[in-house]
Amino acid sequence: MSVPPNALKKWEKVRDYALRLPGAVEEHPWGETVAKVGGKVFVFLGADDGSYPMGVTVKLKDETAHAHALACPGAEPAGYGLGKAGWVRVPLEPAGAPTADLLCDWVEESYRTIAPKRLAAELDAP
C-alpha cells in the first residue's frame, strides 16, 4: 500500500509543527509516531509506512473544532475509549480532507489541552 504524496506532505508538515511546540518530543510506542509533552501524548500521528491509511488523532475540547473535525471525510471518534474524552481521528487521504494548516490548528488546541500551563503559555508570549 503506497501513501499518496499529498497525504505524506500534510503528515510531515503536521509532525514538524507538533515537534516545534515547547517541550514536545517524538516517541514511537506501538510502532506508531506520537508527539508528547510532559510525558503525555498530545497527537497520535500513526505510521508513515503505508501499513495503515494516514491520519492524525487529536484531543479537541472546543465544541466547534470537535464538530468540524468529526465532519471531515472518514473522521471518527478515536478508538480504545479515547473518543469519549474528545479525541478524534482524522484521515489525511480522502478527497475533502482538512488542510495541513487546519490540522496544525487542531494539533495546537490538543497541545494546549495536554501541556503543562507554563509551556502552553509560551505559545502566547511575544
Automatic annotation (TrEMBL):
A Pfam family it matches: YjbR
Write down the InterPro entries for this protein, in alphabetical order.
Answer: YjbR-like_sf (IPR038056), YjbR/MT2646/Rv2570-like (IPR058532)
What protein name does the entry list?
Answer: dGTPase
Q: Which species is listed as the source?
A: Streptomyces toyocaensis
